[in-house]
Structure formats: structure tokens, C-alpha cells
Amino acid sequence: MNKKLPPLLLSRDDLEQVFSDPEFVEYCFACVQELLLDSLSPPDGPASRALELQGLQMTVRVEASRRGTRLLRTCIALNDGAQPGHTAEIWAEPGTGVLTAVADSSALDAWRLAMPSGLAARYLAPATTRSLGVLGAGEPVLAMVRALLLALPAISVVRVFGAGAGAGAERLRDCLVRLAPAGRGPVVMCDPDPSDVAVRSDVLVVAGPPPDPSWLTTGSLLISHGPLPDAVLPRCRRFRDLPDATGRATVAAIARGMAAPPVGRSETILYECCGIDGWEAELRDAVVRWSHRRGLGQPLLFPAGEATPADLESCAIEL
Whose CA is closest to 98, among 282, 277, 288, 287? Predict the structure, then answer.
């Protein structure tokens, strides 16, 4: 990070503009792939401590980045009564601890999972993928669907099932329609039958109650970020991002040319996103660079010049 650039206050709207840029999403896919190819050595165990700054409860964690440096991440719970449960993050440069951004974390959490899933789908989804199914709704699902639509541009139909009266599914559909370029987005429809959504989908995202095993179709890709019941697992060939002690098949092996993509498969492919070392640090770096490039966010100006997270304890911040 160029030290001459001021730290930024990045709102939810600022981050939405960043993640709405297809070039940015493609850059993130490339970052994830590079991490899979490089296979970072495991970072040091996270160091955490609690701080109290002006009544805000903060949790600090130190992480390793792809460049072998250390990065500071601070999560703040804004307990001011105005927005219960709302969180922000403080980002600082590795080594120096110089503040780079304070960012709304609600959108970030969703995209942290969405980007690796989008890249994995490029390797694991059927070559003839045209339909995407969604069981569930909410912010993480919306980010996931948007990443998948960019990763798999041939998708022409999105079927959404939401619990209850379908209000969540309706909101998801309306948001996807609003975000799609005029006349170029897929057809988005709500379906009251989750089994119909699952059976008719080449790629199925599960973000709610798990599917019944009988709904799974041969050759489809199932993406889940939560545990699935034992009855589902025997029907699936399971993939994760990087090798582990289980010896499970990995996206990294396909990316490196050490394994072939699952073609002509006779089972459902299950992708389980288990986390990629260094990815969060890469995403933060990319968000800050893109925000400066596009003139997003409000500069945080400190009279004394460069600031560290501890400087937020004072009131010497000018917006």
C-alpha cells in the first residue's frame, strides 16, 4: 500500500460498487487460483486479544498473507444501540501497522466465501451448465449467486426456493433482476418446491435446510458452506480447495493439472469451501487498491499524518 494514500472509510455502498465490477471479481478469481497453485505454508496460529476503545469491543487477529508478511485485522462490534449487531473492520499494513481502511464487514463476509466458490465452479460444474438452483436466501446467497453468474456466464435460468411465504426468495429474485445488465441477465424465478429446484439445476447452492438425498441429480454440482447430513454424503464425490489429512479430492489438484476435472461423472459433485490460507489478506488488499483507483470511500484524515488502529481511540478523525 502506498503510504501517501490516506486510509479509507468504506461503507456498504462503497463495497457494493467494488464487488459489482466484473473486472474486480475476475481479479479475485485469479488471486484465489494463484493461492491454490502456490499452496501457502500454514500461517502462524492466530494471535487474538480484546481491546476496549470508546466503548467499542474489538477483537484483533494477526494473519499471514501470500507475500509472507503479517496483516492486522480488527473486528469492531458497534455497540452504540443504533445498529445492533452491525460490525466494521479495521485494516492495517503488515509490519508497520499503518491504518489502511475501516470497512463495513457485512458485505465482506459474504464475498469471502463467494469468490472461492465461483472459481471452484469453473472447474467442477458440468460443461453444459445452464441452470442454477438456490435453496435459501440472504446476503451470503446473493453474493454466491452473483459470483457464480460471472464464473459461469452460460447460466440462463436461476431458480430460487425460500422458506416461509417466499419473501426472501422474492427479494433475492428482485435484487438479481435489478443488478443484471438490461436484457442480458438470466431468467430468475421463485419456485415453491425445493425438490423441483434441486432436480432441475446443474449447479445447486444450499444455504438453508439440506436437500433430501433423493433430490440430487447425477452429474450436478452441489455447493454447501455448512454441514450436510450423513444420508447426503454417500451420494456425492467430495471436493475441497486444498489437501488435508482426509485425502479428499481438491480443486488445487485440478488447477495444477495433477487431476482431471470430473467429466462424465456418475455421482453428484459436492464442493466444500474450507478456507484458503492468505485469501482474506488478498481480498482486503484488492478492495483497498480498487477503492482508491475508483475514488470510493471517504478519506480518514489524521492531523499527525499516518495513523494506526490505536489512533481511533482519539477523536482526531476528520471525515
Answer: 288
